[in-house]
Write the structure tokens for this entry.
Amino acid sequence: MTLEVEALAAAYGPAPALADVALSVGEGEVVTLLGRNGMGKTTTVRAIMGLLPSVGGRVTGGRLAFGGAALGGRPPHAVARLGLGLVPEGRQVFPTLSVRENLVATARPGPWDLRAVYGLFPRLEERAANLGRNLSGGEQQMLAVGRALMTNPRLLILDEATEGLAPLVRAEIWACLERLKREGQSILLIDKNLSHVLRLADRHVILEKGRTVWSGDSAALAAAPELRERFLHV
Ligand code: ATP
């Protein structure tokens, strides 16, 4: 199942946010979406997941498809049913549900069940009865990843999943992503940690002002300091 995004355009009210985004994620591939703050990474993910209307935005052009099925216009639950799972920016765990309830709320059958997620993040099992709002930031991030895995996604999308975490937790999230990659999980990743994404990802897509300006593999990106200087440094 391949995710295909072609000539994607989107806006919030009258303000354009995306003008021409192109990317693809093939079966078992790990692809990162890179670019400085405000260049359109989160908006691209929201467009894919059908989440733009809920934040006052809309897709204004282009083509979005997963496994050949058009995504444009589908509401978030229908996109999820096609096999796309999101770890959203800012985690967004359900604050008044317990850890266990958070995990099962959107679960779908497959290899990722409670036991598998607790095996991946033992801390979540220890905290199973605690409410989402009483977790530390790191625990919330593990919960957000676990919750997305429990939907047994064909493609897992993570938006800044290592942002603002203590080093140990961050290392745990990277280890989790490396394991998922080894197991053949398709992943679309937004993350600013270049050294990690160069190691983990097969390909990279750079956005600048709502447009795809470069795409290529890790070797090409590692060998192009001018690209990093121009498009990635803040
Ligand atoms: P960041 O790393 O800061 O999250 P980003 O690359 O993900 O950046 P987006 O969040 O997609 O960028 O933002 C793209 C543009 O859309 C920016 O100009 C931003 O101000 C605007 N934007 C994002 N969300 C909204 C919203 N809910 N309403 C209006 N404008 C928005």
